[in-house]
Specification:
about 210 residues, mainly alpha, 3-stranded antiparallel sheet, about 10% strand, elongated
Length: about 210
Amino acid sequence: MDKLILGLLMIKSFTVYEIRQVMRQNFSSMCSDSLGSIQAALKKLSQQGAVTSSEYVEKGKMKREYTITASGRILFLDWLKTPIDMSKSKNMELGKFLFMGYLPKKEQLEMLDLAIEGLEIELREFEAVKASIQFAEEQQQVQAYLEQHDHLATELLEVSQTANLTESISQLGYFEMKTLEFGLDSARFQLNWFTDLRKQLSEKDGEK
């Protein structure tokens, strides 16, 4: 989670609640969006000197905003440049599937029904996120923010080595959409796979 937070802070300063909102809307398949987990990650990053925070008053309420530091950018980019290793996506829930043969057939089917139901919910959530994205509008908002914060704009151009902000933001948006597509495709594959297995078990036992 800490690296995801650093990634967000690369282009904008956020409060804890703003980070939570982004996590809930976009990163639910990657990490928890619990306030406690986010606060713990920010505390760790603060202790590492990767982020700083400042307070401000908005509509009579005191708020704390977090900003990435130079060492935080180095930490994030070092992590980002390490090879992608999908084998690290361990899922202990597969252990239940591995040993499902211990259960009676009726309970096997019930467990598969629950798995299918959960995947249907996950797929609907991904589809809702995709449908809610106002891509052009969001990119314009990011660009407007960066144009008001020159240091963030300069750092983004440095790390992305693009010709201008529009290209940098477009590049970020492209991979955000590809990540969403990965989640959608993964959920569809798993849903189809478990549905087929459920059908095979039903036919094997002569269940209608």
